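For this section, I looked closely at a protein sequence along with its fold in token form, which I now present.
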Amino acid sequence: MKLIDLTHPIQNYVPVYPGDSEMELVQTKYLSSDGYCNHQLTINMHTGTHIDGPMHLIESELYLSDFPLDSFVGTGTLLNVSGMSQIEYKDEYEYLISEGTMLILYTGYSNYFGQEKYFKEHPILTQQFAELVVRKKIRLIGLDTPSPDRFPFEIHKYLFDNRVLIAENLTNVERLLDVNSFEIIALPLLVKADSSVARIIARVK
């Protein structure tokens, strides 16, 4: 068994989606002067690797913490969609995507994390592809991009209306390209919020 970390580290500077508040990680206490060490993190829930819940963009009373744990753990399916500016529906995806799995898309855009093009030129999902995701009863879709769409975020809303969670800003997804079978463990904080930063790993069988 091998574990692959799909999470960007939280450090003093992590790029945020344009318009979001910046994060700050500072050391507030020092062993030499205070007798103990402590750090303080100020972060919005959409910084770095995180999971979007429906309250983020639609009328919903469900905080991310209201979802059961099995919403965040399950067998993974990987699709290599690198080189596409739009992720279109293909007939072959009908048999490549198993029903009820955690769907991970590899676009290769994690390579641009921190660059302007990462947020402005990332691939987006088409409505037909999103309908496939819903039809396949996908519980969580994971992306190595900042979003499945752009303003006015209709794909976000469509997925949320159908209780599909969205994990954004994954990294290291290329390490799954030659893997035959893996499990996704995508645990958000147990925080009463619309979304949450998360530690997302793949467990290769």
Summary: The longest helix spans residues 127-135. The chain has one domain: 2-8+45-204.
